[in-house]
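Batch job 17 of 40 flagged for manual review because the log was empty.
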Amino acid sequence: MPSVWILTGGIGTGKSTVSAMLADLGAVIVNADEIGHEVLKGEALESVASVWPQTVVDGEINRSRLASIVFSDRSALNQLEDITHPLITEEIERRCRSLDDRDIAIVELSVPRVSPYVGYEKTIVTVLDDQTRRSRLLARGMSPQDIDRRIENQLSTYGWLAYGKWRIDTSGTFDEVTERVKMFWDYVILD
């Protein structure tokens, strides 16, 4: 089994940026969001469509429609997670098992409880102040209302930190974050 690290953090905190930097350094990335999209097109399609038929467009789940439902109703989000998370976890585990023992796998998770590695010692949390997070999300084209709904359905910064032993601060310039990630890779992951 390869060395497996979890990378998690709130929306807009730079998980994908840090993940890409780690990939450039040699890590194999297992992205739970991408797996979730695959699951919605495959094994979970029928179950999700039966609960929220209004989200089906041309035989597929329209993720924008689904997001507008589940991010405004916590019980709907819990129901979606009950359907998809076991399938996502199974695929994460399969992909990690398929790697070489010398590989370093980074499992990028938006929802830390989706993994069998919850509480896992090798968990990294990306952190960023709320004002900068919101600015980044607005720059991505998200509406203030959508940002609020998504952040309200996630853990606070302190809640995220409870999941991880390690943290990477993603404030500052791209070069500053790159340097932090490189130091983390060299002195923690490779150590």
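Reviewer: the log was empty due to a logging misconfiguration, but the result itself is present. The beta strands are 3-8, 28-31, 56-57, 60-61, 104-109, 123-127, 166-169. Unflagging and moving on to job 18.
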